[in-house]
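JOB MANIFEST
job_type = single_chain_structure
chain_count = 1
residues = 197
[input]
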Amino acid sequence: MDPKNSYHHGDLKNALIKAGVEILAREGVGGLSLRKVAKQAGVSHAAPYAHFADKQALIAAISTEGFKQLHVQIEAARAAYTGDPRSLLVETAWTYLQFALHEPDRFKLMFSSVLEKEKDYPDFVEISQRNFRQLVEVVETCQQGGVLKAGPPDLAAISVWSTVHGFSSLLLEGQIPHTALEKGNIKDLLVFVLQNG
């Protein structure tokens, strides 16, 4: 391993998370271990234990960082489309889909049941709840702008999320028929799904 690409002084935790994401992309969650993460980061086998008690703690950290990234990206979309509820809905969904396409392994891990005891990881719980509140706020804005039907915003948020997440998952798994994909670009197809979901 090239030392320039491995652990940098003072940033061991992030170096280990990055190494975990790289292993996840190559080998899936079954190939993820603290020993492999240490090797990938170019540190001793014992080094990860300074930050992670076990593989579950590493999975929680990888997922937590993913939710933080997604939150920042959606906040940027919200800031760009504050006065345009229709574009806000589309761009929030598009941001979510782009995250899934650019971070497919992390995305699948974040929304899996691999993390067994979520409540043991308060940072994970806090950021995942913050992401859901963020979506509820987007939905409220869209309801006020007449883009989405009135109703309980938390339930409407679950409906929108289910539609976008389902579409993202189907696309990642190659399950959307090529005939549908040939009708236009992916963003146009996403907009159609949002309007008809």
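[summary]
The chain has two domains: 1-52, 55-196.
DSSP finds nine helices and no strands in the chain.
exit_status = 0
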